[in-house]
Amino acid sequence: MRAGYDGTGPGAITPDGCAVELYSRLPIGDEPDIIAGAVPAGAHILELGCGVGRMTHPLLERGFTVTAVDESPEMLARVRGARTICGSIEDLDLGETFDVVMLASFLVHAGDIEVRRGLLRTCARHLAEGGHALIQREGADYHTNVPRERVDPSGFTVRIVSSEPAGEGVESVRAEYEFPDAVWTQTFLSRPLAKEQFEEALGEAGLRVDKYLTEDGIWVRAVRGVEEVEEMGEERRP
């Protein structure tokens, strides 16, 4: 288990505290519709941190081609119908580019700044010219509206129990998922990013915001920055 991360409950637990069986049970919301409305039909998507395929499978059903990446072989074993790659996201270099690169699950809020930089560089490195990066951010009150809970219509309860300072701008977050037959917990590190900080982080990786896709600013579509595009053009000139 990584320092600052923990998970409890039945079944395999990944190094960042995610329970494989839990994520296999969690329903998908409107994310696939948000994604489908933001990118060209039939696009080839590189999904970074796909987990058990909660978004992978609905995207495949909508006609997209998906290359799904995760560091957990136990998670990837649950993915069906997509090309899968097991490995570290921040070190990924496939030598190919994609119409869409997706970084969901609030991964952009990695507690370690260097990990975050690596994640965003991976997005930029695999983005085709004219392509889109889709990034999921935390909501504005993610760390302040605590504790909170939500009862899902399917019958389980999810709670954000606490968000406590862990030093150097990082929060330690504890979540609980209570089902009628099992309980899982996850503790993880998160670095809150205000809008300006988020956009600055994108800029460091050669990306810029193209559009905030949702009113709450959680889903963002990014493109290559102007300087990045100009550099690519220079490389292609004879």
Describe the structure.
This protein is of the alpha/beta class and 238 residues long. It has a domain at 20-139 and 194-236: 3-Layer(aba) Sandwich (Rossmann fold), CATH 3.40.50.150. It is built from seven helices and twelve strands. It has helices at residues 20-25, 31-36, 56-61, 73-76, 113-125, 195-204, 226-236, and strands at residues 6-8, 44-48, 65-70, 83-86, 98-103, 127-136, 148-151, 157-167, 170-179, 182-190, 207-212, 219-224. The strands form two sheets. It has a seven-stranded mixed sheet. Strands 1-10-9-8-7 form a five-stranded antiparallel sheet, with no helix packed on it. Helix 4 (73-76) links the parallel strand 3 (65-70) and strand 4. The longest helix has 13 residues, at 113-125. The protein starts with 5 loop residues before the first strand and ends with a helix.
Give a brief description:
By secondary structure, this protein is an alpha/beta fold.
